[in-house]
Design a protein that fits this description.
By secondary structure, the protein is an alpha+beta fold. The protein folds into two domains: 56 residues, Beta-Lactamase (2-Layer Sandwich); 65 residues, Heat Shock Protein 90, CATH 3.30.565.10. Helices cover 23% and strands 42% of the residues. It is built from three helices and six strands, in the order βββαβααββ. The strands form two sheets. It has a three-stranded antiparallel β-sheet with strand order 1-2-3, covered by helices on one side. It has a three-stranded antiparallel β-sheet with strand order 4-6-5. It is globular and about 55 Å long. The protein starts with a strand and ends in a 9-residue tail after the last strand. The model has no long low-confidence stretch (mean pLDDT 78).
């Protein structure tokens, strides 16, 4: 079992709240090393995100949501073999390339929400 880290966004407009979710395994030390449980830490990071928004300046936000079959984002992004789920990786790389953030929220049987937020004025991009 590995650690998991995710950002959760709840609410709309002025009531938008941001949370950092970290899940770590807890191990039992008797004989063979075995997972005894999980430590789950949920931290409200709304003030930090708001401060980042002020420092970054104006942004544009795109939200795409469906109510399809959904998936486990952390599992898909961490355990996918080379060549699998390229679309998710490409979206994240392209958004981060222009100084933005991509948030993917999905659960099996519930659907998926993809949020891309990028600055209106992109940072200097050095060509290779």
């Amino acid at each position: 079992m590995s650690e998991a880290d995710a950002e959760i966004v709840l609410g709309e407009g002025e009531a938008l709240r941001y949370f950092d979710l970290r899940i770590s395994p807890l191990y039992r030390r008797h004989g063979d090393l075995a997972v005894a449980g999980r430590l789950i830490v949920l931290t409200d990071i709304t003030e930090r995100k708001q401060a980042e928004g002020v420092l970054r300046g104006p942004t544009i936000r795109l939200e795409v949501q469906d109510w399809g079959c959904g998936f486990e984002p952390l599992t898909v992004l961490k355990e996918a073999s080379l060549g699998e789920h390229i679309g998710l990786r490409e979206m994240r790389e392209r958004v981060e390339l222009v100084g933005g953030q991509l948030m993917i929220s999905s659960r099996p049987g519930i659907g998926t929400l993809v949020v891309a937020e990028v600055p209106l004025l992109a940072p200097d991009i050095k060509s290779h």
